[in-house]
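Incident review: delayed structure delivery

Summary: a single-chain prediction request sat in the queue longer than the usual turnaround. Root cause was a stuck worker, restarted by the on-call engineer. No data loss occurred. The affected request and its eventual output are reproduced below so the record is complete for anyone auditing the incident later.

Affected input:
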Amino acid sequence: MALVRFGAGIVAMSGSIAGDVHARNRSGNYIRARTKPINPNTARQVAVRSAVTFLAARWAETLTDVQRTAWGLYADSVAMKNKLGETIFLSGFNHYLRSNVIRVQTAQTVIDAGPTIFELPEKDPTMAITATEAAQTIDVVFDNTLPWSGEVGAFLWTFQGRPQNAQRNFFIGPWRQMGQIDGAVVPPTSPDTETAVFAIAAAQRQWIYARVSRADGRLSERFFADTFSAA
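Output delivered after worker restart:
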């Protein structure tokens, strides 16, 4: 599915043209293929879908009206950006899934109470990495003075991208979860040495991204680091 921004002469479009379906939802206009692609059903896809299914049922059957309303208030107060750079607002259900899918996948406590601080967690602009072929590890340097690091129940999750040739300057995926750094009363030590989930070779370019999750369930946007791997 692709988002679309119409220009002069076309202000809206709805319906099917040449196998593409044009429609609109609360996040804006979009285009999707009319036919469904083949679904490979990999183990990782099944795990994510299972987490979403579990949380959707929990939202409907376990959360109270007060909790759902709190997530809705959080959603209405936190502006997000779509892939076109436009400001949008997700639903409370969207934020509940966004915050908790990774928690289900990593066997952490699901946060049912909606956050009462109406902002996303702070990114870490200092994050940097080094990668080593011999050890097949990636050292993640992070700022352990940020609020999440001293908070029990908060995490920094890291995701490794598939290694690329050295001349590659841009990377959007695929990614796999690599590590988890737990917040604690005594903040974790930087750097954190993590085992690579994609095999590393010397001189390749390595990308990772990370997200901060606070104890109240708020999940940051992604922030990135890259390096050339050593032997």
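Verification: The longest strand covers residues 205-213.
Action items: add queue-age alerting; document worker restart procedure.
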